[in-house]
């Protein structure tokens, strides 16, 4: 398991709304002078809606239909400056998970908004104002520290797949980092899906941003594998996200200066990923709310107690371990929270959001929240063997994916779709189509598979 350590001193598929398995990939294009691409991805089908804008100040509502494996319309034109609302109707017989991928925060959920749309149901997805020059991607700040100091690099698509860089140990990781673009500035923490810091001097590895690490079986298995692959290194998950990398090297970077207030909406299915809020009010003991995941209810401060939907459940038998959680002990004025995905700025803001409250940060230890609930919340036990198997299969498919399945290939496909519909052709940035071409050597991949086998057989107890 990662620890929050601090010091003084390619081609991703974004995570799906449920356990991150699927062919869907966020496609990102740089805007031309008058155009920008916004992508909507169906995590269970991999299909996308491209929205192309060449200027206005109005709101436009567009009806979108999900029919089998088709999305209608596939592309549409919207003037820059428009506030876009997508009214999405699922005319299929099965539920669909919808992601709107955009670099700004939508309803406080971060880089994407996730909605489950049941058969013959609709959902309104309200986008922020469309601006000229926007770029969609899964960005990552990457730092290499050596005897000469530290250097910053940028990867446009690595933000949700940082394991691609570190799955075979330090040598491959250094090679991966040096293949990325050099950069003179840090990508904004709100728009950074991932980050990596490799300190070759102090033997430290610090990272965040990985689609496999939202599901607990895979998360715990991966950390055990990394212990084997990185002997002598301190391996840490950067719970503070970009801010933690910045702090490590002492860079003078302006960070998030305003809090978020994510929507508090009940999750319909606790067999899928969700955010768990539990409250001990000292009166009728404990109440629980499984909510949409993607941020943290802790952003609301103590006011969250008046904003939670409904009365809550007295007990819950969850179908899967949540993605994150918050426990509020009202009599003791104690807030406990844990996360898997980064929540930029939250750790810095907590003392101001919860003044006079005791704050306990449990990193990814969901067990602490369950323990606070005295057995009233249960979930399936961890299955590290299953996690190893899934991680190994998923990473093999991703690392060795074809060009057509990579973000670069999907960009080409989206551009072709736009051209075929007679829409203005967008300008694709070099960053969006750059292929660093870094894959493990056969020997390095064999090391990774050996580590998987050791964890699977108990050579390293998870």
| Overall mean confidence score, pLDDT | 76
What fraction of residues sit in β-strands?
25-35%
| Helix percentage range | 10-25%
| Number of DSSP E strands | 22
Judged by helices, strands and strand pairing, the structural class is alpha/beta
Strand order of the largest sheet: 12-11-10-13-14-15
- Give the overall form: globular
User: Helix count?
Assistant: 11
Features:
globular, 462 residues, 26% strand, five-stranded mixed beta sheet, alpha/beta, 11 helices, six-stranded mixed beta sheet
Overview of this protein structure:
The chain contains eleven helices and 22 strands. With 462 residues, it is of the alpha/beta class. It has a domain of 104 residues. Strands 12-11-10-13-14-15 form a six-stranded mixed sheet, with helices on both faces. The chain has a five-stranded mixed sheet with strand order 5-2-1-7-8, with helices on one face. Strand 20, helix 6 and strand 21 form a beta-alpha-beta unit. It is globular and about 60 Å long.
